[in-house]
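User: Hey, quick favor. My workstation is busy. Could you predict this chain's structure for me?
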Amino acid sequence: MINPNKLEQMLQRPVHFDIDKALRRGWELFTSNPGMFIAFFLIIIAISAGATWFLEDFAGIVSIFVTPALTAGFYLAANRVSREEPLEFNHFFDGFKFWFPVIVVNLVVGILTILGIIALIIPGIYLAVAYTFAMPFVLFAGLEFWTSMEFSRKLITKIWWRFFAFLLLLLVINLVGLLFLGVGLLVTGPVSYLAIYAAFEDLTGDYLVEDEGTVNLPHAPEA
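Assistant: No problem, here it is.
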């Protein structure tokens, strides 16, 4: 686990976020193995569609207990590509090794965001953006859910408006992908996940490095 005191130092430095750099890096990660990223995205779509069709009113169960681990799979796969490690299709399902912590962080973020929207809408929008890195902090810093959420919130708050614009741009890109009979979404969807990972990697930088000087690897949750 990364020492939280070390991450606190990260919050003391000036933060610059380059939207174009994150998008370009996300595209680079995607083009390293587009077939695998598209295939995994198709699996996510198929699971979501299947849950809606067969479970109907209980489809939300899949969103709570399955989707977070699949999302984590995108980040973990991106991390392997970024570290120039071999990527096999089974690695996309490594998110299930972090099943409990990613479910907890996703659930708490969702609840707080909904409460914020119910309150005055604006607080909900703020939290939805600010908690974007909560899951990556769980995966790559080995932190428990609340600490991960707070580091995400504090880091993104320093560049909130620019990061909000980044997420809006990803939304627009995906809407454009939908216009092409939905086929474009098979590219824009994975690229969006990878661009968010790229932004996280860029903004956390050397702070997600173990004290002994080796690059931090994903941390398996403690038993």
